[in-house]
């Protein structure tokens, strides 16, 4: 299976939103992606298989840090290394830009994501109490580059 990573475009948003709604109880709205596609210092990537979008990632550069805002892979394509490919691409971009650290929030209940980030070298940093709109806590995880 050949996986291509490229920049996200507006025309990808139907597919991105389909995956977003499948994967999250509180999905991002189209306007969030629209905004991030236009915003400076923001990186929006998609993973493609046979010209079909099967995953995506959004990250914000803030000073010398990169905040991973969103990552998700189509359920039918999970556990095939696509999330890792997206992360490796953003890590390469971050290193080229001399970014020192990547951090993210993840639901305390999202053990799969925590395993995924740990495998990529992220460490647990601290707990953000009530970070999510439904009151769930977030683990902040980070990786030094
Ligand atoms: C988290 C997510 C992006 C991972 O993407 P993926 O393409 O499935 O991940 P990969 O195939 O690259 O997996 C890399 C490693 O992560 C861990 N991992 C991934 N999926 C896992 C699962 N279902 N159970 C346990 N560990 C898992 C494993 O360590 C895996 O390595 P291995 O395949 O050698 O065991 C994907 O599960 C997803 O889209 N989840 C729903 C959305 C989400 O929760 N996003 C993160 C919000 S913070």
Structural summary, described in words:
The protein is of the alpha+beta class. It has a domain at 4-103: Gcn5-related N-acetyltransferase (GNAT) (Aminopeptidase, 3-Layer(aba) Sandwich), CATH 3.40.630. The chain is 30% helix and 36% strand. It contains four helices and seven strands. It has helices at residues 13-23, 30-38, 82-96, 111-119, and strands at residues 4-7, 42-49, 52-62, 65-73, 101-107, 123-128, 138-144. The protein has a seven-stranded mixed β-sheet with strand order 1-2-3-4-5-7-6, sandwiched between helices. Helix 3 links the parallel strand 4 (65-73) and strand 5. The chain starts with a strand and ends with a strand. The structure holds coenzyme A. The site of coenzyme A (COA) has 18 residues, from strand 4, helix 3 and helix 4.
């Amino acid at each position: 299976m050949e996986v291509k990573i490229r920049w996200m475009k507006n025309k990808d948003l139907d597919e991105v939103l389909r995956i977003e709604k499948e994967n999250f109880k509180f999905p991002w709205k189209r306007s969030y992606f629209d905004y991030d596609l236009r915003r400076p210092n923001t990186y929006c990537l998609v993973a493609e298989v046979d010209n079909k979008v099967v995953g995506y990632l959004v990250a914000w550069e803030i000073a010398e840090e990169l905040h991973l805002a969103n990552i998700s892979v189509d359920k039918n394509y999970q556990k095939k290394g696509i999330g890792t490919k997206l992360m490796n691409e953003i890590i390469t971009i971050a290193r080229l830009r001399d970014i020192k650290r990547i951090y993210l929030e993840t639901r305390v209940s999202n053990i799969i994501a925590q395993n995924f980030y740990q495998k990529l070298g992220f460490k647990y940093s601290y707990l953000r109490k009530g970070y999510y709109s439904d009151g769930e806590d977030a683990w902040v995880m980070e990786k030094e580059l």
